[in-house]
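Let's practice the habit of predicting before peeking. Look at the sequence and jot down your guess about where helices and strands might fall. Then scroll down.
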Amino acid sequence: MRSLSRLLPGPILLSLSILSASVLADENTPAPLQRLNSPQPITCYCHAGSRIPDQEALGGFGDSNNFPRKLTTAHQTLSLPEGRLTLLALPEKRAPFQKRYRGFRLLLVNRTGKRVGLKALDSCLFLFCEAQAPDGQWRAIELMPRTDCGNSFHRVLLETQEYWEFVVPLYQGSLKTRLRYRLDISPSQPPIYSNIFEGSIAPGLLKAR
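Done guessing? Here is the structure:
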C-alpha cells in the first residue's frame, strides 16, 4: 500500500497536519478553572490522613492519604502563634479545587507543643466555611457529612509542629461578604476559626443549614 503522502497533494497534507495538531492541542489543554457559583451547598471535602492509629476507633472507617507535613523555615513568615492550633486561610495561594474549580490553600497547624486529636467522619474533618449574613450573623454555607454507620467515626491525630494542607473552593456570587472557616474539634471543646477574608457567594448558600 502506498503512503498517504504519495496519494494526496501537498496542500491537502498540510491542512490535515494542521487539523491534527489542533485536535491534539484541544485534547491536551485543560479547561479553564471556574469559580464555584452555585446556590447548592457542598459537603465535606477537608480530608485528613493520620499516620498515628486511633486506638479508640471501632475500625472500618474510610481513610485518606492527605498526611500531615512538617513545618519548615518557609512557614516562618505566616501568622502561626506558638502554643495554639491555628486555622489559616490563604486566599492568595491559589490551587485547583477538585480539578475543575478555582481554589486556594487552607492550613491547619499544630504549634501547641503536644499531639492533638480531632474528630472525623471517614477521615473528613468537621471543617466548613461560614459567611457573614446581612444581619451580621455568621452562618455555615457548607454541609457537614452524615452517616448511619458508627464505624465511620474516629479521630485523626496531628503532632506538634505539623500541619495539614487543604484546597478549598473560591466562591463567587452576587452577594459580597466576609468569609471564614470553622473547625469543630470535639463536643467538649470550643470551635476554632480561621482569619476572615473578603469574598462573594450565591445568596442561597445562607440557607445551607
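How did you do? The chain has a mean pLDDT of 83.
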